[in-house]
Amino acid sequence: MSKEKVKDILEWTYCIIIAVVFALLIRYYIGTPTIVKMSSMNPTLIENERLLLNRWVRTSKKMPNRGDIITFEKPSKINYSSSEIDQQNPIAKYENEPTNFITKFSYYVLELGKESYIKRVIALPGEHVQIKDGKVYINDKELKEDYLQKDVKTQIRNEIGFNDFIVPNNCVFAMGDNREGSNDCRDFGCIPLEKIEGKVWIRITPFNKFGKV
Questions:
Q1: What is the rounded distance in angstroms from the CA atom of residue 209 to the CA atom of residue 213?
Q2: DSSP letters of 149-210?
Q3: 43 prior amide bond cis, ω within 30
Q4: How far is CA 43 from the centre of its chain?
Q5: pTM
Q6: Which segments in the chain show pLDDT lower than 50?
Q7: Element containing residue 129 per DSSP (H, E)
Q8: What pLDDT is attached to residue 135?
Q9: What architecture does CATH give domain 3-212?
């Protein structure tokens, strides 16, 4: 093989590597597309809709606002018994974290084997959350949730869950709009800021609903 051909191959290889690295950096730090896979956000977000996530929330470590729709890493424990519910420490558990560079890169950057949830931010650090009488109360005031369908009630399932607590520092409390069909912070506790992956920004498809969410 001639030196010119070797040089061309090396140049193309460098270009491909740079392009892949650049794409991964954009995907991790700035934004990435995703697909809605569950019905927990019905009717706001429907299964198989394609979305564009804003990853700047994670990059800047900025706390999201109440009402924002976010994605976050699925906790390692999503169901508790009544004896395991600790209203004084309502933080979701993440106990199966990768431990070395290769597994961390594969899990966090390539997102191989990683599962995420998409929910709406309901309460912020320091706020007192109560779920009672089918409604949500923040600091003893009923939360107005115009995004919910009429007559939707917010309850904890099987009378087991987090329903009277203060959101810990650097955490958020989030729930799906489809309250009866959502496995969320009522079941496994509040999400640490470091586990929030992005904020839903734009709905890409269906095209007749294209636009900012």
A1: 9
A2: PTT-----GGG-S--EEEPPTTEEEEE-SSGGG---HHHH-BEEGGGEEEEEEEEEESGGG-
A3: yes
A4: 18
A5: 0.91
A6: none
A7: strand 128-132
A8: 96
A9: Ribbon (2.10)
